[in-house]
Amino acid sequence: MAASSSSLPLPLLLLLLQLTLLLSSPVQSADEEENLLQGINKYRTSLNLSALSENKNAHCFAGELADQFKSQPCTNTTGADTVPGTETQFSNYPDLLSKCNLDIMNTRDGVIMPACVPNLVPDIVLSNFTESQYSQSLNDTKYTGAGIGSEDNWIIVVLTTNTPPGSFAPGTSAAVAPKIVFTSHLLSVLLGVFLVLLS
Ligand SMILES: *[C@@H]1O[C@H](CO)[C@@H](O)[C@H](O)[C@H]1NC(C)=O
Ligand SMILES: *[C@@H]1O[C@H](CO)[C@@H](O)[C@H](O)[C@H]1NC(C)=O
Ligand SMILES: *[C@@H]1O[C@H](CO)[C@@H](O)[C@H](O)[C@H]1NC(C)=O
Ligand SMILES: *[C@@H]1O[C@H](CO)[C@@H](O)[C@H](O)[C@H]1NC(C)=O
Question: What is the sign of the dihedral through the CA atoms of 184, 61, 144 and 50?
């Protein structure tokens, strides 16, 4: 009996606990994002507007933004209560775009709407978008897609259009090229070394 109880190793239990946490937390925030998109689309339907479709690239970017916001406290100078024009600007905006392989030329017409709600209570989250200055953007036929990201108390909605400047289409070949160039450069260097060794 004693032997069998000591054969349940503590590290294994800790590992299981970690796995559970790892698996459960993203699911939870994905639920909140999904709820918000559904709520926004109900709002759009009530205004006779088409539903916003999910934009994967905007979703990626919203996640990167949420990561930047998460350490900031909820105050009246951040989020949906922001006085227009005083929004937080990130100096690493280009880096965030490139993390999602996005080209700034394809994001100019998009809209970024951050909100901070303790514990992301669904009803309050939704009203932070539909009953704030953001409602103007949500009530706009120009926007056809959305990506939502969340971290801690922050949830970010990024709206996209179906025209190139707001499409959030992945970067053109120019943005992707450096990787390929690097690889072929490396290959030719290796090939060069090989040829030198052969001669
Ligand atoms: C919504 O659109 C329908 C059909 O186009 C129209 O009959 C109705 O009046 C519109 N409702 C509102 C609230 O605009
Ligand atoms: C934020 O709140 C503080 C204290 O409650 C107030 O003095 C300040 O004017 C508020 N700022 C804005 C932008 O509403
Ligand atoms: C937005 O969320 C905050 C909580 O951070 C809440 O105090 C505020 O009433 C909400 N605003 C709207 C318009 O729902
Ligand atoms: C939505 O936009 C239309 C057209 O600009 C406007 O007539 C309507 O009052 C707006 N509704 C809301 C709830 O903002």
Answer: positive
Answer yes or no: is the C-beta of 135 below 6 A from any ligand 4 atom: yes
What number does the ligand 3 atom closest to the CA of 117 have?
5
Domain count along the chain? 1
139 CA distance to ligand 4 middle (Å)? 6
Average pLDDT (150-171) is 94
Residue 189: other Cβ atoms inside 10 A = 10
pLDDT, tens digit, 9 for 90 and up, residues 6-65: 555 666 656 655 555 555 444 456 899 999 999 999 999 999 999 999 999 999 999 999
Beta strands in the chain (DSSP E): 53-54, 111-116, 143-151, 154-161
**Residue nearest to ligand 2 atom 10, measured at CA:** 76
Q: Which residues, including other chains, have CB under 8 Å from residue 151's CB and lie 6 or more apart?
A: 29, 63, 66, 67, 69, 70
CA–CA dist 25, 176 (Å, integer) = 32
Q: Which domain holds residue 46?
A: 27-172
- 59: domain CATH number is 3.40.33.10
